Amino acid sequence: MTLIETTVTVAVVSLLAVLATPSIRAYFDSLGSPAEVKGAISAAFASARAIAAKEQHYAGVRFQQDLSGKQYMIFIVNDPNLVDAAAVAGHFKETNGFRAAEGFNPIKLPDNIGVMEAVNQNTDIDDADKVIDKTTFTVIFSPAGKLVIHFAPVLRAGIYDTIFNDLSANPMFKDDYDVPQFLQESGRNSFIIYDKTEFGKVDAATRCSDYLNQLDVVYINPYTGTIIQGN
Predict the structure, then answer these.
(1) Dihedral angle at the C-alpha atoms of 40, 43, 49, 52, nearest 10 degrees?
(2) 229 lies in a domain?
């Protein structure tokens, strides 16, 4: 790594130690506005970059809902020992799965705030399964701290889920979604922070055009891993 990348790594490793304290955990629990959530996500990205540097593997933050609609940020790291059979069968370039980063519990986002990957048409988000799909995504960083569009296993139901829901393979996060398998998708470089109450007021058929398209898309700088407010 370059001197600048090493300096950044030292800084974010220091941040990791701070994130482990009860006071910071209480801070996350007290979040309530989109601006506060954006700051929390930025801190989570810095921690993920530090994990990637420490482990010398791809690492990231996975956004995922449970069955009650609560959404979490989960710190994950690529593990060469976790081979995703579906990726092998599909001849994907990346076949290794991700596991939870040791020592980091999922961080619950506020009940009134949701985070989803950017969408641009109403049919992307017009039923409950699609909402789960769009709010289940991953942001991944390289060991050098750069954002990468790397394939990551996404939540899949039942026998298809070999990484995220299988407690025997990865004691991270357990939910039995009754939805079709999601297969793999690339890591994301942008997302939307939205108000769940306002989202619920909009007709399902026009959620994108009548509400989501009015919100700013938050982009991630590919070189620094910091978030950038966009339009």
Answers:
(1) -70
(2) no
Q: What is the DSSP string of 164-221?
A: SS-TTT-TT------S----EEE--SEEEEEEHHHHHHS-GGGHHHHTGGGSPEEEE-
On whether residue 119 sits in a domain, the answer given is: yes
Domain extent for 108: 3-221
End-to-end CA distance of the chain: 33
pLDDT at residue 202 is higher than 60: yes
Is residue 226 situated within a structural domain?
no
What is the rounded distance in angstroms from the CA atom of residue 231 to the CA atom of residue 214? 9
Which position has the token pair 């938050």?
218
Q: What is the largest CA-CA distance in the chain?
A: 52
Predicted structure pTM score: 0.75
Domain total of the chain:
1
pLDDT (tens digit per residue) in 95-121: 677 777 877 777 889 999 999 998 888
The Cα 61–Cα 45 span in angstroms is 7
Could you tell me if residue 227 is inside a domain?
A: no
